[in-house]
């Protein structure tokens, strides 16, 4: 589990004064990058190793609105990891602890040529780190 804080920027709001829905997906990426860094596998390191991890599915349920300058805490957890596919779960809360969004993103792991990687065989330390995070849940 990883906690990441995002402060809503003015440009992220729409004409109604609330955060535009597309920004929550961007915050998920920020939280995901922070999560991987926290467990010792930041994106730069993965890319140096030749691992890319595209998003293959994303879902977001909007529960409450946020507005300019709100602070949103994003808890990122590993929901499921098969060694081939990783599903991350995000719980976003405002400063009062009220859930503003619940989301998931699914990822696969490819080499630079776009070929599927089998992390258990090819990158066992990274595989084990993700298994350890799944076990925490």
TrEMBL record:
Mention one GO molecular function. Answer: fatty acyl-CoA hydrolase activity
Keyword list (alphabetical) reads: Hydrolase
- Entry annotated with the keyword Transmembrane: no
- Lineage top rank: taxon: Bacteria
State the Gene3D superfamilies in the record: Hotdog Thioesterase
Is Hydrolase a UniProt keyword of this protein? yes
List the Pfam families hit by this protein, alphabetically: 4HBT_2
Family under the similarity heading = Belongs to the 4-hydroxybenzoyl-CoA thioesterase family.
Name-wise, this protein is Acyl-CoA thioester hydrolase
Instruction: State the organism named in the record.
Output: Enterococcus cecorum
């Amino acid at each position: 589990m990883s906690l990441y804080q995002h402060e809503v920027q003015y440009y992220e709001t729409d004409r109604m004064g609330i955060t535009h829905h597309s920004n929550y997906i961007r915050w998920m990426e920020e939280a995901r990058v922070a999560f991987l860094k926290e467990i010792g596998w930041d994106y730069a390191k993965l890319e140096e190793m030749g691992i890319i991890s595209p998003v293959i599915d994303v879902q977001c349920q909007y529960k409450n609105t946020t507005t300019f300058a709100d602070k949103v805490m994003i808890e990122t957890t590993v929901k499921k990891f098969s060694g081939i596919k990783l599903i991350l779960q995000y719980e976003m809360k405002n400063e009062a602890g009220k859930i503003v969004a619940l989301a998931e993103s699914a990822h696969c792991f490819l080499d630079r040529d776009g070929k599927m990687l089998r992390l258990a065989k090819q990158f066992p330390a990274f595989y084990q780190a993700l298994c350890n995070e799944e076990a925490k849940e």
